[in-house]
Amino acid sequence: MDNIIGTAETTSYGSVAQVADFWALLKPGVMYLVVFTGFSGLMIAPGTIHPFLGCVALLCIAIASGGAGAINMWYDRDIDAIMTRTKKRPIPAGRMAPDVALSFGVILSIFSVMLMGLAVNWTAAILLALANGFYVFVYTMFLKRRTPQNIVIGGAAGAFPPMVGWAAVTGTVSIESIVLFLIIFMWTPPHFWALALYKDGDYAAAKIPMLPVVAGRKNTKWQMLVYTLILLPLVLAPVYFGVAGMLYGGVALAASLYFLYLNICVLRSEEDKVAKKMFFFSILYLFLLFAMLIIDRAPGIMNLIGG
């Protein structure tokens, strides 16, 4: 906290925050993926939901994600000022006062959970609150600066959205929605450690104990491979549980094998560009998995492809 106080005292917040700065606080890149995986859970869940309520549920997921992102930027403003990847964010750049960002994040977080509960159902609202609280309190405030397992445990926060979408339709948590949770949970370590491999200098400067900084690059690469191997059967589990069919299964298997191939390339190479390639493909990979879940369950899709 000393670093945070020091940063707040030395940074000038003379300019008025613009709309673009509030938008940046929401971490839109993360929010898009969160909303999309939540939408996938909503679309493939058994049962029906009124289209308007479905849109409300997705809006709540987006707002909650943005609120958590704003609180994260408030808390991490000291290390954000050090890292080249984050130093242009609104608070470290001096375009927004920390208390404004905090208030914005708290209001969005509370509003999203209450709206989800009152308009959709309280099971989905509780899951949304858990996701938000896990990201803010468990990952951001407790794990991130204390343990190299921050991403492993903290990854649970980003794995909740498909469960929230599922619960918005069914009002329940089922084994199928837990499988969707586990896919994202196991995907998160190789995804973020790929980023950490080519940004390890930033993390070291900010004294964040990311695995490459603490355990070394080779150890990180082996752990990435382990999680990727565990992920492979998990991505096929929706077929086993009847959530998806062979169309999804075929695409998921092919994409997962390529993801594994990239992981092996990272293991064998010391070049940052290989880790960067794996990181960017990992985003496409997750998007592809959940897009295929939707397509595979879309009415009439099998007729269109001759099934």
UniProtKB/TrEMBL annotation:
HAMAP family: CyoE_CtaB. It comes from Kiloniella laminariae. Keywords: Cell membrane, Heme biosynthesis, Membrane, Transferase, Transmembrane, Transmembrane helix. It is found in: Cell membrane. Its EC number is 2.5.1.141. The gene is cyoE. This is Protoheme IX farnesyltransferase. It is an enzyme of class 2 (transferase). InterPro entries: Protohaem_IX_farnesylTrfase (IPR006369), UbiA_prenyltransferase (IPR000537), UbiA_prenylTrfase_CS (IPR030470), UbiA_sf (IPR044878).
